[in-house]
């Protein structure tokens, strides 16, 4: 069992190719004894974004604050605070902050990841290991 206040968890930059103005806190993960899922808190600066990438696992996301768009191959889907988002496995995507305030969202992913996620940038260095 673990109870931790979010500000007691390190806020780390997302260093994946294509990310801009994005930081992450790994709130709960395998190191905490969670056998199946990781809970992460993302903070995205205005006009910042995660890399546009794809992987074989789903995301469940809950938007805590801010406004943004989920960029997909079918266009952009807008979201705001208190929206819940499901991202299908295999769906290319990125989260972009379109507002003027810090955007925060919780994101849950499974530990069992069948393949490494890959940026859709063919020149990326395959270090997209934290989105």
What key phrases describe this protein's structure?
6-stranded antiparallel sheet; mainly beta; single chain
Strand and helix layout:
Blueprint: E1 12-13, E2 20-28, E3 37-49, E4 53-54, E5 59-65, E6 67-72, E7 75-80, E8 84-87, E9 93-97, E10 103-110, E11 118-119
Antiparallel strand pairs: 1-2, 2-3, 3-10, 4-11, 5-8, 5-10, 6-7, 6-9
Structure description:
The chain has 131 residues and is an all-beta fold. The chain has a domain at 12-37 and 45-77 and 91-98. The protein contains no helices and eleven strands. The chain has strands spanning 12-13, 20-28, 37-49, 53-54, 59-65, 67-72, 75-80, 84-87, 93-97, 103-110, 118-119. The strands form three sheets. Strands 1-2-3-10-5-8 form a six-stranded antiparallel sheet, with no helix packed on it. A three-stranded antiparallel sheet has the order 7-6-9, with no helix packed on it. The radius of gyration is 14 Å and the shape is globular.
């Amino acid at each position: 069992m673990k109870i931790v206040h979010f500000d007691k968890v390190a806020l780390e930059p997302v260093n994946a190719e294509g990310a801009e103005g994005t930081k992450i806190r790994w709130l709960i993960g395998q190191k905490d004894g969670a056998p199946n899922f990781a809970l992460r808190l993302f903070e995205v600066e205005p006009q910042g974004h995660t890399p546009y990438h794809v992987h074989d696992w789903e995301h469940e996301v809950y938007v805590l604050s801010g406004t943004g768009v989920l960029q997909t191959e079918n266009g952009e889907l807008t979201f705001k605070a208190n929206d819940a988002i499901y991202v299908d496995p295999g769906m290319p995507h990125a989260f972009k902050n379109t507002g003027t305030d810090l955007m925060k969202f919780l994101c849950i992913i499974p530990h069992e990841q069948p393949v490494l996620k890959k940026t859709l940038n063919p020149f990326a260095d395959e270090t997209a290991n934290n989105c």
